[in-house]
Structures are given as structure tokens and as C-alpha cells.
Design goal:
Chain lengths: ~350, ~260
């Protein structure tokens, strides 16, 4: 698996063809015009994803995610820029691109008057697969997701979770190298969502997966690289940890010389430990217990050594970690997309801010 | 070979549309036959004694080809419009087909072809039913001549339906077009009586309407076994133009 690019690394200027078979997007722009009204859906978007990687695209409604996906799946043509999917240009080699991609759309587009088997066969035929090839493949995929017994049922009778599984199978029949998942777990119950997550994680080997989602937990769990979009532009990109560190640095600056520490214990925090910390901590320190086995301490950065002095006085094997907590991905999203909420929600929920 | 490769999407789309129509086939059959059979029973049998022969042809025989033609053209319009409308607006499967390695033209050609094929199939069912109830015998030459007149009409009405399926966002708009344009076109084209019964001014207009050629020409083919050549050529030229123009226009619309 190829290592994801650094968060702030600009996209390398390629020649006419990218040097890998994942996804390369360079300087894409798209404007939709209706009469005198024009909407800049994408503006100079650049990104890349490698084989074996799960790329998450996050953004509010209207951020440009769908337009970007439509361009990458050759449905929409960009006004400017270029994109390569699976090593082929979406502008000049659309058919080769389509051969290599599978799409799981959020609205499960099926011919509901056909059975599941008929739907899947239809899409295999549209990919030019011979019957001897697609029949055993569909059978195997259906068995994997426990839909084999329902293969002769009409899709209109399926639940949301079953339809999503069917969508996933349909996208995989022709063994695509690139898989686009557009909000794949929207509207699913927790069990079905977990099943889809497991399926996504098992699919990443040898494939490039592109995932759009509104669920931050999902992006955090599944994605190797995240791209945050807003108003048609890429705000930032990087691994989830890189993005969290980026926001943590901003928060640190916002705290004006204060440092937030998180102490995690192997058991509930005892009253006398708390009292001894309060006695040793420098003036102005704020101490909270957001969970029974966790302490949050905010104190001036230059006086932080007091925390280790106090830690040394605790019984052995009770304190498991002292760390500066990274913000959650949701906090990152709010911090970078919705500027007003720029502080770690742990600080807020812990009552420290 | 490359043509076959490029057009590989037509057959699966054609096939799935036909498969969709076989669902609930019994009700589908009844609904297809009900209207022409009602007209046949009401006018052909019920009013048999009150309506004189038309140009020497018994009225029951006169309206039979018209009712078959009516079924074919209405069905062609229905299939053409609803296949595309449902795919674009309701099931949104057109977006799924568009990301397959086939062209938009494949999808549209498959849709239009399935539309007029279904229309001919349903027209045949009506023909069988009506012929069972009438003393009329349809020979093979008559059947072939009749089909030669019906097919271009079915193509044109499927194409008209396809355009409506692309243009309109709401289903009631298609129903309105059917009431305002399609039904008058069909009913005034010589379905129940020859257009020579109309005043000359109306006849002058109707001779330029393709449905007139479909009904008048179809009746001649059905009853006498020969196609009026001028009408036949005119209909086929119009059908081919309609077919290619519809595919090109719909493709352009759906791409943008």
C-alpha cells in the first residue's frame, strides 16, 4: 500500500499521464449556469488517491462532492482541469474509465420491477461480461452478503440495508479497480452500517476506494486520507491524524499558552488523587473529570512539569497515559469548515472552555 | 466488430424493458385489450344494424384495423414516454446506466426499440382477439402489408413519447399531452370513419397528418393486402427521421 501524501503537500505537477493507477485530479473547475445565475460548483480542485487506499471526501451540502464524483465517473464534464481514474483520462478515455469503476450510490438506483438476479445480470451484461463469467461471480457475491436466497425477489420488496448490499454487489460484479461509495451508510441501522463498514474494509486490497460521507466516525474509521471541501474548493487534505494535529495546533494557539492534558486511568479516579493534584497544580489550572477514568487538566504550558510530579506520587499501574488529546474528526470538520467553532469539543464538554 | 462492441448496451436495455412488461402479464393483457374490445363490441356489434357499410366494407371489418392501429400507436407512445420518464425521474436508473461502458445512444436506442416492439406485440394480441370475434380472415400477405404500415407509426409514436419522457418532470404532464395531442391525432385520423366524411377544409389538413396515413393506409393493407406506396414511403421516411432525430436530441438533453 502506498503511503498517503502529507496534509499540506501540493499535488505534484504531472505530465500528460499520472504515474499510478489510482485517482489523480488536477485543477478541476466546473460552473453550472442557468440563465443569468451561475454556481461555481468546483474551483481548482486537486487531489489524488492510490491503489489500496480509502479516500474520504467530506463537506457540507453544496461543497462540491457530488459534482466531483460525477466528473470522476464521467457523467459530467469539467470546464477546466483534468482527472485520471485507473490511469485513464475522464475527458478522452471515458469508456476505459467506466470499465474500471464501480459506484455505490446513496439512492440505490434499481429497476424495482426486476428481480435482484435480473438487475445484477443486466449490469453485468452492460459491462460486456459473458454469462459463463458473471453467473458464478454473482452467485458467490450474493452468498457472501446473505442475499442468495432472495435472488429471485423483486428489489422493490427489499429493505434499505438489503438494497445497499445489492448496490455493493452490483458495483463489484465486474471487479472494478476503483470503487466510489456515495454516502454508503446513510439511512442504515447500526447493524447494517457495521456490515457495510466491514465490507468496505475488506474491499480495499488492490483497489482505490473513494467515500463520501456525512458521518465523521465513519470517515475516521474507514479512510486513510481525507479531503475536506467547502464551496467547491479543497480546504485541506491528509490522514485523519494529520488533520486532527493540524486543528490541535490551531487550538493550542487559541488557548494562549495554556496546555490541555488528558490523564487516563486503569480505574475510576480516586478522590484523594484529585485532591493531591489540586494541591500541587499551579494557580489558574483547571481540572475536570469528563469520564470516571479520565482527567482533563488545563494549565500553563511552562508549568506542565507539575503534572508529572503528581503522577509520580500515584500508586503504581493506576495511571495509564498522559497525553495531549487530539480533537475528534467532527471538531476538525467544524474548525475547518465552520470557522466559528474552532475549539476541541473535549475542552467544551469537559467544561474547560 | 467495433460497431457491435459500441452497441452492446442496446440488447440488455431492450430485454429488461420487455421483461418489465411481462410482470403482471394477465392484468397487462386485459388492460391492453379492454379499450379496443369495448369499441369493437359497442360499434361493431352493438350498432351493427344502425351503421351502414362504409365504402362497401362491413363496419365491423372497417373498424378492426383501426382499433389494432389505435392500440399500437397508443402503446408506442405509452412505452416511449414512461420507459424514459421512469428511468430518468423515478427509478433514476439512467444515472446507473450512464456509468457503464456503453453510450447514451445505446440506452436510447434500446428504449425506443423496446417501445415499438411492445406496441407491435400488444397490437398483435388485440388483432388475435378481434379476429376471433369477427368473420374476417387475415392472410399472410395482408398481415405483412399491415405490419409494414404499422411499424413506422409505432416508431414515430415511441419517439414522440421518448421526447415527452425527457422533457416533462411530472407524470401528469405526459397524461395531459396524451389527452390534448395524441388522442385527437388518433381519433381524427380515420379510426371510426373515413376522412372523406369530413368537410374539405378539414380533409386538407388531415391528409398531412401521419396518423391519417397510418389508419387509411393500414386499413387498405389489412382489407385489400396492398400498401399505398406513397403513404408507405412517406411513413418510413418520417419514422427514420424521427428515430435518429429523437436519439440525437435526447442524447444531447441528457448529457447537458
Amino acid at each position: 500500500m502506498t503511503v498517503a501524501p502529507e496534509a499540506s503537500t501540493p499535488v505534484k505537477p504531472y505530465g500528460n499521464k499520472p504515474n499510478h493507477d489510482g485517482i489523480v485530479v488536477r485543477d478541476l473547475s466546473k460552473c453550472f449556469k442557468s440563465g443569468n445565475h451561475a454556481v461555481q460548483a468546483l474551483s481548482h480542485v486537486s487531489l489524488e488517491a492510490y491503489s489500496g487506499q480509502v479516500l474520504g471526501i467530506l463537506g457540507s451540502n453544496g461543497a462540491g462532492k457530488t459534482t466531483l464524483l460525477n466528473i470522476l465517473t464521467t457523467v459530467t464534464r469539467p470546464d477546466a482541469g483534468e482527472a485520471w481514474v485507473g490511469g485513464y483520462s475522464v475527458l478522452t478515455q471515458a469508456e476505459q474509465v467506466r470499465q474500471r469503476l464501480g459506484v455505490v450510490s446513496q439512492d440505490d438506483r434499481f429497476d424495482t420491477y426486476l428481480t435482484l438476479w435480473e438487475n445484477l445480470s443486466l449490469h453485468a451484461e452492460l459491462h460486456g461480461m459473458p454469462k459463463r463469467q458473471f453467473v458464478p461471480r454473482i452467485e458467490r457475491l450474493l452468498k457472501q452478503v446473505d442475499l442468495y436466497e432472495r435472488r429471485n425477489s423483486y428489489v422493490e420488496l427489499f429493505s434499505g440495508g438489503m438494497r445497499r448490499k445489492a448496490s455493493l454487489i452490483r458495483a463489484l460484479i465486474h471487479e472494478p479497480a476503483i470503487l466510489f461509495l456515495d454516502e454508503p451508510t446513510t439511512g442504515l441501522d447500526p447493524v447494517a452500517r457495521r456490515q457495510v463498514w466491514d465490507a468496505i474494509l475488506s474491499l480495499r486490497v488492490g483497489r482505490t476506494l473513494v467515500l463520501t460521507t456525512h458521518y465523521m466516525e465513519e470517515a475516521d474509521q474507514l479512510c486513510d486520507t481525507l479531503v475536506l471541501m467547502d464551496k467547491g474548493q479543497v480546504l485541506t487534505s491528509g490522514t485523519p491524524t494529520q488533520l486532527k494535529q493540524q486543528v490541535a495546533r490551531q487550538q493550542k494557539a487559541a488557548l494562549g499558552g495554556q496546555a490541555l492534558w488528558q490523564c487516563r486511568f486503569s480505574q475510576p479516579v480516586a478522590g484523594q488523587w484529585l485532591e493531591s493534584l489540586q494541591a500541587k497544580a499551579p494557580a489558574g489550572s483547571v481540572i475536570k473529570t469528563p469520564k470516571e477514568d479520565t482527567l482533563h487538566v488545563m494549565m500553563p504550558l511552562e508549568n506542565s512539569h507539575w503534572l508529572w510530579v503528581w503522577a509520580a506520587s500515584l500508586p503504581q499501574n493506576t495511571l495509564t497515559a498522559i497525553e495531549q488529546p487530539l480533537p475528534s474528526l467532527e471538531t476538525v470538520f467544524f474548525a475547518l469548515v465552520d470557522k466559528p467553532i474552532a475549539l476541541n469539543e473535549d475542552l467544551v464538554s469537559g467544561g474547560l472552555v | 466488430m467495433w460497431v457491435l462492441h459500441l452497441k452492446r448496451g442496446i440488447w440488455p436495455i431492450f430485454k429488461k424493458n420487455l421483461m418489465g412488461e411481462t410482470r403482471g402479464w394477465f392484468l397487462e393483457l386485459l388492460s391492453t385489450i379492454a379499450v379496443p374490445l369495448s369499441f369493437f363490441l359497442a360499434f361493431g356489434l352493438g350498432l351493427r344494424g344502425d351503421i351502414a357499410d362504409v365504402d362497401g366494407v362491413p363496419y365491423m371489418a372497417f373498424i378492426t384495423p383501426g382499433l389494432i392501429a389505435l392500440t399500437i400507436q397508443l402503446e408506442a407512445f405509452r412505452s416511449g414516454s414512461w420507459n424514459l420518464w421512469l428511468s430518468i425521474r423515478h427509478h433514476k436508473t439512467i444515472d446507473e446506466y450512464r456509468i457503464k461502458p456503453i453510450s447514451m445512444a445505446d440506452i436510447l436506442v434500446g428504449d425506443v426499440m423496446s417501445g415499438f416492439t411492445l406496441a407491435i406485440i400488444k397490437g398483435s394480441l388485440v388483432a388475435i382477439t378481434l379476429l376471433l370475434l369477427s368473420p374476417f380472415t387475415l392472410t399472410l400477405p395482408k398481415l405483412l402489408a399491415f405490419l409494414a404500415m404499422m411499424l413506422p407509426g409505432a416508431v414515430m409514436f415511441t419517439c414522440l413519447g421518448a421526447v415527452m419522457g425527457v422533457v416533462f418532470r411530472r407524470p401528469d404532464q405526459i397524461a395531459q399531452i396524451q389527452s390534448i395531442i395524441i388522442t385527437p391525432l388518433l381519433y381524427l385520423g380515420g379510426l371510426f370513419f373515413p376522412i372523406s366524411r369530413f368537410p374539405q377544409a378539414i380533409q386538407n389538413v388531415l391528409v398531412w397528418v401521419p396518423t391519417t396515413a397510418i389508419f387509411e393506409g393500414g386499413r387498405q393493407a389489412f382489407l385489400a393486402g396492398h400498401c399505398p406506396l406513397q403513404m408507405l414511403i412517406g411513413l418510413w421516411v418520417l419514422a427514420l427521421i424521427a428515430f435518429f432525430a429523437t436519439v440525437a436530441w435526447c442524447e444531447h438533453q441528457l448529457r447537458h
